[in-house]
Each structure stands twice: as C-alpha cells, then as structure tokens.
Amino acid sequence: MGLFVFLPLVLPLSAWPVARLAELHLHPRTATRLLAWVAAVMAGCSTLCLALLGVAGSAYLLPGNQLPDSWAEPEVRAAVRYDGAAGGAAIPAFGLVAVACGRTLWRHRRVTRRARRALAGLRDAPVAVLPDATPYAYALPGTPGTPGRIVVTTALLDGLTPAERRALFAHERAHLAARHHRHLLAVHLAARANPFLRPLRSAVVYTAERWADEDAARAVGDRRVVARAIGRAALLSSAAPTPTLAALATTGPVPRRVAALLA
C-alpha cells in the first residue's frame, strides 16, 4: 500500500499551526466552524485508515479468511510486505478509538440528562436560576421540540451588576443560538480519535467562547460591559471553594478573551 496510506494518521500533526493561524486571523465564528470541520474530517480519515489497515492486516495474518479481491493471496502479501505488522497494530488501535469515542458520547449524554433532571422541578422558562452558593452559568441544549435553557446560580447573579447580567445572558443565548455544543462535541470526539488533534479541540473551545463574546457585545452594545462580565464571572468562579466543571468551562482563557474585546 505504500507510505501514503499512513498519511491520514500523521497529517493531524499540522493541527497546532492551523489552530494558531485560525485563532489569530479569522473571525471567531469562521474559525470555530472551520476548525470543527477540519477536526472531524481528519479524525474520520485517520479512523478509516486504521480500519482499512486492520482489514488488510487480517488478510495478511489470516490466510484462510474469506475477504473480497483476494487480499489474502500470496502475490498480494508479497507486494505489501509490512502490512501484516501495521495491520496487527491497527486492529487494537481501532478498538481503542471506538471505546474512547463511545465513552465520550456516553458521558456527554449522561451529563446532559443529569442537567435536565436537575431542572425538572423548576418552571419552564428560558432562564433557570438555581439557588446555589457556587457561581457558575452554562447553556443547556434543548431536545427536538424543546428550546435550550440558560442555567445560572444565585451566587453568580448576586456578584454581577444589572448590565453585566444582561451581558452574561446574551453570551449564553449566543451559545444556544449557534449550537456551540455540536462544535465542541465534534472536536472532543476528534481528539479522542486522534490525539494529534487536541490543539484543534483547545482552539475551538476558545473560539466558541470568543464567538459568544462578540455576539454578546453586539447585543448589549458595549464591549467593555461584556469584558467586565467575563472578568468578574471568572474571579467569582475562581474564588469559589469548589469550582464546578461548568464554571471552569464558561470562563475559558479569560485574559485573552478580555484583551480581544477591548482591542
């Protein structure tokens, strides 16, 4: 098959410079969409490559199997001298990728179900306020026929001014409107499928937050208010005794986001 067969497995090494260029030179909306698609395509190609190597390896290692195109014939094995070793390694690697992606999907669904169950006793409103001493906020995606909701705690609302609260709600509404959870799930799965794609995952987490920041600034009409809301929410979350995952996920690389808003 030649060395070019392994190109999909090593091409994701270019993820870091691609992520950096997109962050610096593209609008956050364009960067998020582009990087998510690049990550998904690269992950799909590398996974397909592992599957094909595994099939070819099984044809090499199991001469008695029944595979199409006579892949197990001696002439084919002689032409692909090293495919037995590569295929033998690809089979467990493909299994690990399948397990890792399956666990990621299972955890995503479990967290989403728990979040929805936590809101079951509250009235059906676009914003759900939880009486919690830990300051955090997040956008909970909806189900088919049910809109998403913004979840925020009383501790975070108490620490923000009215203008900053409007900026916070605009930021979370932007997450729901753009369906950022889909982009984030795609890059998390891609990073599980190929660890070389982790820079793209980190970049999309950042650009999705920046996208929401820009939409919030446009909705509020004051970039400084949005910057103050981001900074104050980050300070409140970091000062909490036990910061939650949702609180940390909403802050992101705060200094870069604030600097970008005030630039």
Summarize this structure as a short list of keywords or feature phrases.
three-stranded mixed beta sheet, mainly alpha
Q: Can you put this structure into words, describing what you see?
A:
The chain is mainly alpha-helical and 263 residues long. The protein has one domain (3-262). The protein has 12 helices and 3 strands. The protein has helices at 7-10, 15-25, 28-61, 74-79, 83-118, 154-158, 162-178, 180-193, 198-220, 223-239, 245-251, 254-262, and strands at 127-130, 137-140, 149-153. A 3-stranded mixed β-sheet has the order 1-3-2, with helices on both faces.
Oligomer: single chain
Number of strands: 3
> So what's the overall shape?
globular
Number of domains: 1
In percent terms, what proportion of residues is strand? under 5%
Show the helix and strand layout:
Blueprint: H1 7-10, H2 15-25, H3 28-61, H4 74-79, H5 83-118, E1 127-130, E2 137-140, E3 149-153, H6 154-158, H7 162-178, H8 180-193, H9 198-220, H10 223-239, H11 245-251, H12 254-262
Parallel strand pairs: 1-3
Antiparallel strand pairs: 2-3
Helix pairs in contact: 2-3, 2-9, 3-5, 3-8, 3-9, 5-8, 7-9, 7-10, 8-9, 9-10, 10-11, 10-12
